[in-house]
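Researcher: Go.
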Amino acid sequence: MMGTDLTAIGHLDADCFYVSAERVRDPFLRDKPVGVLGNQGACVIAKSYEMKAAGVKTGEPIWEALVKCPDGVYVKRDFRWYEVLSRRMIEVVRELSPRVEYYSIDEFFFVAVPVRRGGTLQETAEAMRAAVWERVGVPVTVGIARSRTLAKLISDSAKPFGARAVLDPEAEARLLAERPVTEITGIAGRRERRLLPWGIRTCLDLARADRRLVRSLLTCSGEALWWELNGTPATPIRPQRPLHKALSRGGSFGEATADPVVLYAWLVRNLERLIEELHYHETLAGRLSVWVGYKDGRFGLGQTRLVVPTDRFDLLLEAARPCLRRAWIRGASAQRMHLIAEELHRRDPRPASLFEPPEADQRAEAVAQVKRQINQRIGRFALRSAATLPLASIYADRANGYDICDVRGKICF
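Model: Structure:
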């Protein structure tokens, strides 16, 4: 172990996060084989270790999972609840680290420092694991190392509910020698096949390979992994997530429609979801696209660039209407729709409009704020545009409150 004053990189990963989140809410599920089902309840999108032992795989249809694990408990996903627990977890991590990066809904990277004067980083890993378990109820595994790639490999090796700090190069080498190179995020399939002729099969093989060879085989991103495997951080911890290139909301209608009124209702529903996402990421849309897919295989697309980047419902709806008209194919049955916000800008400082008096902008912002507060208190989309009334059956089903694509995942998507 290196000196106690060392600053290193940590990786926290929740164990079977969706299942663990369901167990927080319902202790009856503890120690039982549990599967979380995706949209329409058709497939298993997450499973407990007990269900994994029965042979059930992620993405497996429910009817096949039932054959392998007939005694399992299968529950419908609730992504809003998972988002709540994710935010609680990152709050705990931020109390124990000066810099934390949200990597995914159940994974965070952080700068690891001793929790007490003279303490070790092993104590830090154990303290963070204990704090999340005690205050959130979700089991997590924590790995600490000299770089983020090493930290992730260490946390993977310590699962489940582990806490491990490895900062000694000899201990790192033993760990890397045991793990196939495909366990490194970013190396699989084609990249693995490029490495095999050079005898690179394990993580240690890659770390010991010539740096220039690695760069020629895997480009500069592979070279960055080489540096990380050798204990030199190549990617910084980003407390503020970089802007997305685009944000999108949409999906299948469930039932195809040629009714322009229903199609417009779907436009408004997806726009309200998109605005919710813009608010979450504190961004403004500079460009808007409306894509509609039809039952006969055709599709339509309408796009517009906004005069001023915005997240206001009235302005975005005004821009979306002509986009929908361009995407609409008269008489054709539409099956799916996607709204895409591009050319994103940070919400603050907010650019002023040249074509609208300040009081109008303030009034619209006040209305939007009231709408958000009511929905946060009563329920998602409890207050929504009347244009969505043709979709009453969709809103009546609480399982549709959080669509599968509403899960906030990796930095890039």
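Model: The first strand starts at residue 8 and ends at 14.
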